[in-house]
Specification:
Pfam families: Phage_term_smal. By secondary structure, the protein is mostly helical. It folds into two domains: about 1-115, no CATH class; about 125-239, no CATH class. It is about 70% helix and about 0% strand. It contains eleven helices and no strands. α6 (about 100-115) runs parallel beside α8 (about 145-160) and α8 (about 145-160) runs antiparallel to α9. It is elongated, with a radius of gyration of 21 Å.
Length: about 240
């Protein structure tokens, strides 16, 4: 496996990826022998994944496969000029799937800046997928383990996708996740009532929930808004 290569071979693979990505024209399509080899490997790995029915098992396998592509990703980020790269785009999705959020954000910034598309088989564009999947990562995934970190990650997603056209429901889902993560951070500071000094943060969380509801009334934040409003009023009254 590529992940078990020596440091010298990994460096060579990275430099080859960098040269390949750099040789492709902006807004063009990546080509070359090295790229074709990566496409072949990716196709082989995707066939392997199709052998599993369990989504959880697929994610576990993806996590073991990602190190094999690390040098390719590093090379594209270092030398790429923005040419479409289906390997890179697919691996962006895999990093989100496996909860490698920090790496995914770096990749997403590059992909969105250069207007990447996802390969055939994906029904959403990159911005919509990010809104949906990062929000899901907090609402029902591993991001919920650290609300403070989640606020930072989700805030980055909000920034990166701000200029992208996306369904209102997907954007509402992200605002909901941000608002709930902010509330969770407040709860860590004070698990009963909001301290007067934290009212501004609570109002920012409320603004996120209000934005979510404005985009989609069915996003399910009404009760959260009501509870937060009561807490804000109590905090303001005790100030």
């Amino acid at each position: 496996m590529m992940a078990n290569q020596s440091p010298a071979l990994r460096h060579r693979a990275r430099m080859l990826a960098e040269r390949t990505a750099g040789a492709a024209a902006p807004l063009g399509v990546t080509t070359g022998t090295a790229y074709e080899m990566m496409l072949y490997k990716l196709a082989d790995d995707r066939r392997r994944l199709k052998g599993y029915q369990s989504v959880e098992r697929k994610i576990e396998v993806k996590a073991t496969l990602l190190p094999d592509y690390a040098q390719w990703i590093d090379g594209v980020l270092a030398g790429g000029k923005g040419a479409q790269d289906d390997v890179f785009a697919t691996l962006l999705v895999w990093h989100i799937d496996t909860g490698e959020y920090e790496r995914a954000l770096v990749m997403a910034e590059y992909a969105l800046a250069h207007k990447f598309t996802l390969p055939d088989g994906y029904s959403r564009d990159i911005a919509t997928l990010m809104l949906d999947e990062f929000a899901e990562g907090y609402l029902h995934g591993k991001l919920a383990a650290d609300p403070q970190h989640a606020v930072q990650v989700l805030g980055t997603v909000e920034r990166l996708t701000a200029a992208s056209d996306a369904p209102d429901q997907a954007r509402a889902k992200l605002h909901k996740a941000i608002g709930l993560a902010m509330i969770a951070v407040l709860d860590q500071a004070d698990d009963t009532d909001i301290a007067p000094a934290l009212v501004a943060q609570a109002e920012t969380a409320m603004a996120q929930l209000k934005r979510a509801r404005a985009l989609s009334e069915s996003c399910g934040v009404k009760k959260d808004m009501e509870r937060l409003e009561r807490r804000i009023k109590r905090a303001a009254g005790s100030a």
